[in-house]
Amino acid sequence: MWRGTLLVAVWAWAGVARGFYVPGVAPVEFKRNAPVEVKAVKMTSSQTQLPYEYYSLQFCRPKNGTIYKSENLGEVLRGDRIVNTAYEVYMDQPTQCKLLCHDLNTPIPWSEQEAKEVADRIRHEYYVHLLVDNLPCATKFVMMDTQEQVYERGYKLGFVQDDKVYINNHLRLILSYHTDDDVNFRVVRFEVEASSVDLSEIGGTADQCSFPVKHKPQEVKPTDTNNILFTYAVEWQRSDVRWASRWDIYLQMTDVQIHWFSIVNSLVVVFFLSGILTMIMIRTLRRDIARYNADESLEETLEESGWKLVHGDVFRPPRYPKLFTALVGSGVQIFCMALITIVLAMLGMLSPASRGALMTAGILLYVFMGLIAGYMAGRLYRTLRGQQWKSAAFWTATLFPAFVFSTCFFLNFFIWGKHSSGAVPFTTMMALFSLWICVSVPLTFIGYYFGFRKQPYEHPVRTNQIPRQVPEQVWYMHPVLCLLMAGVLPFGAMFIELFFILSAIWENQFYYLFGFLFLVFVILVISCGQISVVMVYFQLCGEDYHWWWRSLITSGGSAVYVAAYSIFYLSTKLEITEFVPLLLYFGYTAIMVVTFWLLTGTIGFYAAYLFIRKIYGAVKID
């Protein structure tokens, strides 16, 4: 077992983890007139959320055949299918107008079915994504009110006008280069200007085509056969932008100024509220501890009641300890994975230039963090007086991953049915399943074994044999109200960042401000811990000692707001109307909400646990 686990771990790190380094991230230098390869990544639409590979439509294929790039795990899961194209581009050698893969007399014939498929994707506003030296293409727009130049990833496959569909069959590739010696050149920008030119307007020869400035667009008739000509032009521009700064225009596709002000506003509000909560709790606790430790009669203490009266039951193990420790262990695993991934990304190791690296790193880190999750869950299970540690370890290793894997497996059937490149291949699914069963599960069992053998956490008070009766609680301590009240503060710390994360996921944008994300993550941890402490303190003051599950569920209340905000985002930002895209959205959103609940709930539980041990260790218990 040990040998098999080690072999699978080495295979996973060596084969799948090459997402940490992607060829093309290092500077690539071209000589003058050297061939510059143009590759296609995929076609995407924010309306359908179903990516398709480039040659899913009848486009021109290269003469030497299609060659697909070997991809890492993150690229496969993102639906990237990087392949060569028929565009012939040479460094610093402009091309006026050239036919792509045919001559004027033999255009590409599209059948009625093929034309219908193209028209359907144009109506769903699909964008085509190309690459040159790992640099994605961008389309430049000028804002009408401010005359500001903005960039958008990819170029539009076509457009709809007067209920007629037109395809962009002419591309003007605008490539910028930087050179210091006029010998070695580096590509620093890749823009595309797409236009539609009717077949009858194109003239010239095979090597030099032409069409008038004012021309008719090329219509796609979904109820008839179509003849299409594809043309392109290449323009080279010298640029002062150095290679290290060539990603700047892509990373400025969002309004950074609004992002800055929103983040600063969130930080100020959360720090202010956290300061108030901390001050109130410290003052209240000092008064309580001083009163309990004072030389007062027993009758006066009982009259005042409070959290001291439940000292004999506060550490009583909760119901369903296996399930509880499994959820906490999963939360620890998610926390460690998220923290390390954000730190690596903040240090620039998982930049957008490393395609798929972020997702690959997250998956691998989650797998290997099973060791820590098992250790923490095992020691907690020992503290809760559990005896069946093997069964509890199995729950910890399989509960959350089984939910994610089964949900993704179910959704994958619908993606397969749409013939989308977003469908995970069977071999990749088997690789992920092997990582889970052969690496994550054994590591969780190993960590659980050592955690269970460790001495349990020491509690400052003993637990009574007979449980104390819980009095009737005030209305505002109802679990649902506590859940909603506790979720506001953590959600306020991160809802602005959530908007940009959702935009990166569902609108195919880059997310790159990982420094801000790290700060927000720290604020989220602090706010979850503080609000959990406050809610548990009020619960104990009401002499309700069933705080274990309440701390886990209540502190994860911000997940309810995340779910509500996801629905709001769907209704205001996205235009999804079909069944399968809606199913994908709600399926992946459910995974995200459950993951966020486990993360914040675990943070809140450990904060409440440390708080309770601290306050009961500070009072005199007779």
Automatic annotation (TrEMBL):
It is found in: Golgi apparatus; Membrane. It comes from the Eukaryota. The chain crosses the membrane at residues 260-282, 323-350, 356-381, 393-417, 429-452, 473-506, 512-540, 547-570, 582-612. It holds the Pfam family EMP70. GO terms for biological process: protein localization to membrane. The keyword Ligase does not apply. Its main location: Golgi. Residues 1-19 form the signal peptide. Keywords: Golgi apparatus, Membrane, Signal, Transmembrane, Transmembrane helix. GO terms for cellular component: Golgi apparatus; membrane. It is a multi-pass membrane protein. InterPro entries: EMP70. The keyword Transit peptide does not apply. Belongs to the nonaspanin (TM9SF) (TC 9.A.2) family. PANTHER family: TRANSMEMBRANE 9 SUPERFAMILY MEMBER 4 (PTHR10766:SF55), TRANSMEMBRANE 9 SUPERFAMILY PROTEIN (PTHR10766). This is Transmembrane 9 superfamily member.
